[in-house]
Amino acid sequence: MRSDLMEKFDAIIIGFGKAGKTLAGFLAKKNWKVALIEKDAAMYGGTCINIACIPTKTIRHDALNGKPYTDSIERKTNVVEKLRDNNFNNLNNLDQVTVFNGFASFVKDHVLAVELEDKTIEITSDHIFINTGSQTAVPPIEGVDLPGVYTSTTLLDEQQLPKSLAIIGGGYIGLEYASIYRRFGAIVTVIVSGESVLLHEDEEIREAAIKEMQNQGIQFVNNAHAEKIEEGLIVHCSNGEKVEAEAVLIATGRKPNIKKLGLENTSIEVKDGAIVVDEHLQTTVPNTFALGDVRGDFQFTYTSLDDFRIVKSKLFEEGSYTSASRGEVPYSLFIDPPFARIGLTMKQAQEKGLSVLEGKVDLKTHPYNHVTDDLRGLFKVVVNAENKQILGASLFGAQSPELVNMIKLAMDAKVPFTHLRDQVYTHPTMSEVFNNLFDVK
Ligand SMILES: Cc1cc2nc3c(=O)[nH]c(=O)nc-3n(C[C@H](O)[C@H](O)[C@H](O)COP(=O)(O)OP(=O)(O)OC[C@H]3O[C@@H](n4cnc5c(N)ncnc54)[C@H](O)[C@@H]3O)c2cc1C
Ligand SMILES: NC(=O)c1ccc[n+]([C@@H]2O[C@H](COP(=O)([O-])OP(=O)(O)OC[C@H]3O[C@@H](n4cnc5c(N)ncnc54)[C@H](O)[C@@H]3O)[C@@H](O)[C@H]2O)c1
């Protein structure tokens, strides 16, 4: 049943994602009347805190510290519930913000229908922000609906550790879950469609990371596209290999959430399944923006947060900060030890015809790694020999997801590599590795 009520808001935000919730709080401070629509009360706070970064890194922490799986899942649930409540209350307690628990879809440009529990309402605004995130892109293969076949979301709800796990896909989710579930004690096999995992990474680091994962007992089946899952469970691959396991994880990428969003009722353009935006993240409808995973670019919480900054700049600072201003985007892969990367590898820099120098440290030579009794890892950096700018870093080892942020800062600020090389660092720490790492040859 549709009511005639058509309330007008200063801003409507669809989805409780990182960008959306941050924007809602910000606009409320500016005294905008804001509607935030979230389809699932169990997703208040968005993907990151409920089903992604936070729960996975919580159980990773526990796995590395020897906590049993079932205890870890319980702790993860507590952490998530606490953060979800905090996120909800932070916005719901603001007079200017109305949180609707309902599914939003466009009726036409600037008008949305919201399916609430008991009725459907229509609301309107001159400013609409689409922050609906993404979901697992489940491949159209036979057997994906069988019991025991999971996505990254559903596996996190499983109370018992599967004895064996076949993972389809060797990207971020595939490798992180492989590392975590192996540490908990499962037998893990990763089915990789290409000739290897980490194909875009520095070759030496790739080899070191794969060797380390294999030492931990993770098995890789390369050049294998999963084609069918047979009851049992047996995954049949394109190269004839069969992988048998108690559970199967689908980790084959994530696609933007645009289904049933009613975009066909608007002038919002979609390309390759994602919403088209300009450098201010404005869609093809003026004052309607798309932020986060739904725009089909990076799929990280911190890039979604940065999307908020781009939109804020457009609304309040004449758009001086755009997607082009962002600089290099670092990324981290939470295997064990973790891997982090920013900018170019040596090979990529050479292919660009740059005059480059490389720095390299095997972490078994670094004092802090002896303190922590973890000698694993290899750090590499590439610098421009002519202007001394840092071109990139590939860091496989402890604390690399933290250290890469310092390199991002230096790259954006155009700090010459010699500065990081000659900096006074506290001791004994991981960051002091930069004294040697930037001693390039
Ligand atoms: C397992 C996993 C681990 C990850 N780990 C990391 C990590 O360590 N670090 C990192 O940076 N990134 C990580 N990511 C990626 C990161 O979680 C996402 O990039 C980020 O959460 C996307 O946020 P967003 O702002 O696009 O929207 P989301 O947080 O996805 O929010 C979108 C919200 O919109 C709601 N919604 C959708 N459609 C509608 C509708 N029509 N009406 C109303 N509501 C709707 C959804 O329910 C959802 O709550 C991980 C992802 C996964 C799956
Ligand atoms: N640490 C982090 O920041 C982090 C962690 C987890 C997820 N994420 C985000 O989530 C997104 C999704 O992660 P993901 O791992 O699902 O995607 P991904 O794109 O990283 O990897 C998916 C892999 O699955 C392979 N694949 C697809 N179909 C296959 C098949 N039938 N058989 C075998 N392999 C197949 C693809 O070739 C690809 O290598 C990432 O893009 C990332 O941005 C980030």
UniProtKB/TrEMBL annotation:
Binds 1 FAD per subunit. Its cofactor is FAD. Residues 329-436 form the Pyridine nucleotide-disulphide oxidoreductase dimerisation domain. NAD(+) binds at residues 169-176, 253. Transmembrane segments: none annotated. Signal peptide: none annotated. Disulfide bonds join 48-53. The active site is at 427 (proton acceptor). It holds the Pfam family Pyr_redox_dim. Keywords: FAD, Flavoprotein, NAD, Nucleotide-binding, Oxidoreductase. GO terms for molecular function: flavin adenine dinucleotide binding; NAD(P)H dehydrogenase (quinone) activity. FAD binds at residues 57, 132-134, 293. Belongs to the class-I pyridine nucleotide-disulfide oxidoreductase family. This is Pyridine nucleotide-disulfide oxidoreductase. It comes from Ureibacillus yapensis.
